[in-house]
Amino acid sequence: MKFADTTVSNERYEENTQRLSKRHIWNKAFKGICFGAMAFSILMLIVLLIRILTQGIGFLSWDLIVNFASRNAEDAGMLAALAGTIWLMVVAAPLSFVLGVGTAVYMEEYAPVNRFTKLLQTNISNLAGVPSVVFGLLGLTIFNRLLGLGASVLAGGLTLSLLVLPIIVVASREAINAVPTDVKQASYAMGATKWQTIFRIVIPTSLPGILTGTILALSRAIGETAPILVIGALTYVASTPSDLFSNFTAMPVQIYDWTGRPQEEFQNIAAAGIIIILLMLFFMNSIAVFIRTKFQKRF
Amino acid sequence: MKLKTVWMVPTLASMAVFASACGGGGEEPGGSEESSGGEGSGEESSGQEGGSGDIAIDGSSTVFPIMEAVSEEFQKENEDIEAPVGVSGSGGGFERFIEGETDLNNASREISEEEQEALEEEEIEYTELTMAYDGITVAVNPENDFVDQLTYDQLEQIYSDDSDAETWSDINEEWPDEELDLYAPGTDSGTHDYFVENVLGGADLTRNASTSEDDNTLVNGVAGSESALGFFGYSYYSENEDDLKAVPVTDDDEEAVEPSPETINDESYPLARPLFTYFKNSSVEDDEDVEEYVRFANENAGELAEEVGYAAAPDSVYEENEEKIDEAAGE
């Protein structure tokens, strides 16, 4: 009996080790695939960065930031474009934040769950995938022509905020959804109204997620050329915007123009311009990271 | 406590953005004077053009480098007048011109009949000025030593969709049996339109050609393939002379001509094409700034065009332009 038992367990043991090693192989293979995917995207990013840095870093200069565009690449700068981009963000950031978070709060906390709201949710998610030119055409028709704002900073900012709104709504809803129900119920149990709960519990708790989503969405808006060109952004401007109704140019527009020029010097300063816009993006993304780590709460 | 920290974040964030925006504006020389009057008067002057000291210019990306140079020089002499230039393309620019949004529209082709009709409907009178010449350059790889010239017939055979030429030997038996690697500007480009109209006689461009709206892509294509052939604006050739070989072209059986600023200027190069700007007559008549700008452009465009890689138009063209401007200004 005892003897037989051991053989059985030995057989099982061997079978098990075989199975186990198979599983280990799979385990390793999957890890390899994931690592490959990561390595590929990082490699592409590094190649891109190296190419831009080697081409552009020698052409980074103070002139590039304080001069206006010029036909001579040595004198050309992107002051108008830089100021235009900052103005666009000044319009788009607060507006898309308020509208986006408002929509998300309504949909997560107030809206009844029925067919209509489900349809609404699907459509908002779909909107996030609409090509940016389409938003440009919308902006041209409504803000530029119908409301008579012209090709102004205001029209551009409004168009960009429409563009990023769906992304902010989706990100904010995720963040609000992640607020634990216990915490909310505890708030109600203390006698807080819905408004008080949302204002003091839900929004503060989900703020890191909301702000990260907002900043990432705005980082996307900064790089958009198509919608801005469609609403009528200029390419050569020798002044910075003085008010919301000034016409403007933006950094991606300037970079796009320079890369298309036949002269190699312009392609070099375009690379330098790309470095500047990358630095801006890097700065914005690090704000997002900072906010997330600083204000994150764990339950 | 909690309330405070919550609302501090967005407020601080937007304040930071505002502050940086103001910083950006402050660097501009003389910017503060402008912005002081800006906020109050902004709403009334919500229009984007008009007599606010701004000249609205838009249109072709091909003409853009010339107009950018004109505006740059013009604003050095007239600091209080702003003359920004947009790039909506010839067609997109005409759309805005028809809407009455712009004073000047640059075009790398002549105004179309439909656009003329639309302008008539809107009762907008306009004047066409030839600002400079561009020469569409047909180029091959520098390694290509067999092509010494091309006729219009051969170009048609190569680029027309109706033709079944696939190799260089299909065009000329003496040429090697290598596949044609063709590059051409995309349909949005005025260069494409001109080539189709004047060389292909209106036939479609062959689908075998790789097309791009960015002429630099075409240059790289031709520079990178020994059996390649492409065409693009002259400035893209002159900036890349080491990587390309321009092919002399003839539109009949006479001697083929190579593109150069001189042969484009005197129109002996058959693919020389004019670049235009169209101005709204009423703008020149009513607004002294626009009139001054148009005159300045006419006087300097030739020289500036050469500087940015195009060719000047013949002198007689600029003299003719001046008469047209006089007429429009009512002098």
UniProtKB/TrEMBL annotation, chain A:
GO terms for cellular component: plasma membrane. InterPro entries: MetI-like, MetI-like_sf, Phosphate_PstA. GO terms for biological process: phosphate ion transmembrane transport. One of its GO terms (molecular function) is phosphate transmembrane transporter activity. The keyword Repeat does not apply. It is found in: Cell membrane. Belongs to the binding-protein-dependent transport system permease family. CysTW subfamily. This is Phosphate transport system permease protein PstA. It comes from Marinococcus luteus.
Automatic annotation (TrEMBL), chain B:
Residues 21-62 are annotated as: Disordered. The keyword RNA-binding does not apply. Residues 46-291 form the PBP domain. Residues 1-21 form the signal peptide. Its main location: membrane. It holds the Pfam family PBP_like_2. GO terms for molecular function: phosphate ion binding. It comes from the Bacteria. GO terms for cellular component: plasma membrane. Keywords: Cell membrane, Coiled coil, Lipoprotein, Membrane, Palmitate, Phosphate transport, Signal, Transport. Residues 97-132 form a coiled coil. GO terms for biological process: phosphate ion transport. It is found in: Cell membrane. It is a lipid-anchor. Belongs to the PstS family. The complex is composed of two ATP-binding proteins (PstB), two transmembrane proteins (PstC and PstA) and a solute-binding protein (PstS). Involved in the system for phosphate transport across the cytoplasmic membrane. This is Phosphate-binding protein. It comes from Marinococcus luteus.
